[in-house]
Every structure is written in C-alpha cells, then in structure tokens.
Amino acid sequence: MTRFRIALALLGSAATLTAGAVVPVQVVGAQPAAAADRQWVALGDSFTAGVIPAAGGAFEVPRDGCERTDRSYPQVIDRDLGSLFDLTNISCGAATIADVTETAQEPIGRHLPPVVEDPDYPFPAVPPQSAAVGPGTDMITVGIGGNTLGFAEILTKCLQLGQESGGSGTPCKDALAASLPARLDTVGKGYDRMLTVLHERAPQAKILAVGYPTIVPADTSKCRYNDPTQFGAITAGDLDWLRGDVLEPLNKAIEKSTGTQDSAAFVDLYESSKNHSVCDTGKWVEGIITAPDQISFVHPNAQGHRNASDQVEAAMLSSIG
Predict the structure, then answer these.
(1) Whole-prediction pTM value?
(2) N or C: which end of the chain has fewer CB within 10 A?
(3) What ranges do the domains of the chain cover?
(4) Alpha carbon distances (Å) from 39 to 118, 141, 205
C-alpha cells in the first residue's frame, strides 16, 4: 500500500460502506457525578471523534473501531459541562452523512496493512448514528460532510498529482474542479435529509451543526512544498483551490442546509481558527504526518478540539438560556 493509500485509509475515504450486523448503541464518555437534566448525543466523523494520537488516546473498552479520543471536543465538553448534559458520543472515524442518517458502518480502527495490523480488526458494524437519537434527546451536535464530499479522495489525488508536477501549476484543480458542483450538491441534499431525520426522531432537540475549521491558510506561501508535516507535495495553486473551492464551499453548504430547519443552528469553527491552519505556527490541524510514525492526514489536534469545544459549548449554553 502506498503512503497515500495508507493516509487515505486512516481518514476513511468516501468509499461505500456496506450494512452489516447491527450492534447495540454504546454509551461512551465519563458519567457525571450526578445525573444531568439534559440528554446530549454527539454525532460526526473523524473531525468529531478525534482519531489521531495528536487528539488524545482512544479510550473505549471494548473498542468498536471508531477511534474516539479523550481530547476530542465532545469529551472535552463532557468534562466541562457534565453536570448539565449527559453525553452519548457515537461519532465515528470515516463516517459519511449516510452513516449518520441510515447506513450501518464498518469501522476501520487503526488497521492499515501492510504497515499496521490492528489486532481487533475487523470490527462489527455499528448502527446508523441517528439510532442513538430519540424523543428524550435534548441536544444533538453533528459534524459531518467531509467524507461525503470525498475530501480524502481529493486530498490524495492532489498529493499524487502535485508530486508528478514537481510542485508547479494546479494539476488537482485541473483534474477535479468539474466534479465539485455535483459533490457539493450531494452534500447539501444529504444534509437536508439528515436534519429532517434527526428532527423526526427527536422533535424537542436543538441540533447544532458543527462546521470544519480552517485547514489551508489564506497565504499559501506559508506552506512548504514536499513537507509532510504540512501538505506534502500539494502545489500552492492547488492549496488555494482546496481552500476557496472545496473547503469553504463545504462549510457554506452545511450552513445553508442548517438554515432550512428551525430547530438547527450552525456552529462556525472557521473564523476562530483562521490563524491556526496546517501551515501556521501554533497549528490546530496536523498535516499529512505528525511524526515519522504518526500519520495524521490533515486532522485537528488537541488544540483544535479545544477551540471546537469552546465554540460548541457557547452554542449549547446559549440554546438553553
């Protein structure tokens, strides 16, 4: 398996995830000392679950392969607001919008052959994340959409084409730009359906749709070509394209869908993280690798999750007055 395919496997591409045997939903996260009044369910992909070592250690026993980490933002908020909200965190690395709405997902854990063989792989399928939501749910946070867009696939293609070009031009934009409108349309339609399903399952719940943080800086001259702790071989021109035509429109698509539901609100992580991109000093998102033996493939670290928790906490507290 090439380095790029290994990285793609860690993030979890938008490859089709088939339904399998459904297992009961597990409640994870530390329980507060006293029972909280409000039931909160955290849904999402790897940007919610944590997944990478720079976002803490995976803590579930037994493991389910979703790789939730103890410094991911749901767990940080649980420590901050555990007396107010009783957390059920079922976010899962590699999840798509469909995996939240209706599809059983087969988690990959840390199984990255031939480099790493996860001793617990394969993992049983987990139910659609919406199965954890019900009439008694008061708060839902959901961070999803990147895998439905195919961000991992796009990023991998940009790495490969940038290496072939020697760092010049916009080879990834040239190859993939025509596919973006359809990809974004798929995200918008899927998100609309997901919000409808969540509202139907939990009519009284407030839904907070969590966007994605700043990943690529406005000034891409900060990014060093062929530096794997940043964006590796992706060209400067393609980084501009990724920021302006892929990531920012993804957030806009999520925000637009959120605006169609009275019970939903958008939580913006982009503005608060603008000076903490992959290429900034004090980064809140790791690059392709964090260290020689740690593939991070552009995921938030603990500082990024701390910022996300600050933004999401504020929205949660505002929603309850």
Answers:
(1) 0.89
(2) C
(3) 3-319
(4) 33, 11, 9
